[in-house]
Specification:
Layout (H helix, E strand, L loop, with lengths): L1 E4 L2 E7 L9 E3 L2 E13 L5 E4 L3 E5 L3 E3 L1 E2 L5 E8 L1 H8 L9 E3 L2 H15 L4 H14 L12 H12 L7 H8 L3 H12 L3 H19 L4 H7 L5 H12 L3 H9 L1
Antiparallel strand pairs: 1-2, 2-9, 3-7, 4-5, 4-6, 4-8, 4-9, 6-10
Length: 253
Amino acid sequence: MRRDVAGFSLSIAAADPARPVARHTHEDAHFILLLDGHYLSSARGAGHLHAEPALIYNPPGTTHEDTFPEHCGRFAGVSVSAARFAEAAEVAAPSEAAIRMWEPQALAIAHRIAAFAAQGGDALALEALCLELVGAFSRAHAVERRPPRWLARAREVLHDRSREELTMAEVAAAAGVHPVYLARMFRRFFGCTPGEYVRRCRIERAALLVRTTGRPLAEIATACGFVDQSHMTRTFTRSFATSPGAYRRQYRG
């Protein structure tokens, strides 16, 4: 599986005994998440990874030979384009060597990226998760005890424009901060990514229209920013454990 989202390249691959990977160089920075199997990388600082939650950051220009000695296993990769890496370097401290990342939060973000990409998740949510991952290997940032005003502004933008296809850059520009910082602080104070927040706004508006109006479901789906009625129905059912039609009949009853 391979997908490109806003300067990030996401992939999920499996070991192929018939096609060993030769020594090669990655121009872009990238992350490798071991999903299963025994993985060995020659990159300085990476080492052996074996059947456990494992995440590696490789800086730009990494030359290595990565193998699965037992000829089985899977991994997910997130490559960061030069442009996005330059943005991140403004607020992060990239390492010149490969880093084994032990932080539970970084591992959780990487797993969410892999799962969401495999499920065909929307671009905004994937971009936000990738930015969070980039920020996870940065050095310590100043701790803030309460949400800054710009973060409230960012949430207002997401709420008011939830029916649009926003990018992290647009939201960050409206708040006057860097996209990486926005992604990190948004989850810290609101407990979700900007993409997850937008989906909540869409589904809450859809629920309101379903129970208070007689508008066709397809029309409501379009008005709330969903791709189509099927997309809204799937999201609605996951959130409310019932279909939009049954939800409407329940409130009318």
